[in-house]
Amino acid sequence: MKLATDSLTPVHWLAIGLAALSGAIHLVLAIIVPIPALRVGFLLAGGGFFCGIALVLANYRRTVLYAVGIPFTGGQIVLWYVLVGPTPATIELLDAIDKLAQVVLLGLLVLLYVRKR
């Protein structure tokens, strides 16, 4: 795979960093969560973030990746809310960091898609 990073903007790099953070958190959760079905889900989610990063770095159909990344990232937030049922008193630090990263990533993906760059 040949990297094509010359066309990446600071917005791209911030989005890549946030996706890597969320992907890493999901891979850690895949190791520490005791429920096998959730482990698989965390593994797939983490892998999805890192595959997306690799494809963006390779300049593979970036506009399509942004369009796919929007529901993928938004789905992570919705699934967390449905499965965890968080309240301000029950949100763990790792969850807060991950969800904040995902909300900002979601906004950046929308911006990149609208700009088509």
CA-based gyration radius: 14 Å
Pattern of helices and strands:
HHHH
| Tertiary shape | globular
Please give the share of residues in helix.
over 70%
Query: What is the count of DSSP helices, taking H or I runs of 4+ residues?
Result: 4
Number of strands: 0
* Separation of the first and last Cα atoms: 20 Å
Please state the structural category.
mainly alpha
Major β-sheet annotation: none
As a percent range, the share of strand residues is under 5%
Give the overall average pLDDT.
94
Low-confidence stretches: none
Number of separate structural domains: 1
Features:
0% strand, 78% helix, globular, 4 helices, 117 residues, mainly alpha
What is the fold's blueprint, element by element?
Blueprint: H1 10-32, H2 36-57, H3 62-84, H4 93-115
What can you see in these coordinates?
The chain has one domain (30-115). Helix 1 (10-32) runs antiparallel to helix 2 (36-57), helix 1 (10-32) runs antiparallel to helix 4 and helix 3 packs antiparallel against helix 4. Helices cover 78% and strands 0% of the residues. The chain has helices spanning 10-32, 36-57, 62-84, 93-115.
Short characterization:
This protein has 117 residues and is mainly α. It has helices at residues 10-32, 36-57, 62-84, 93-115.
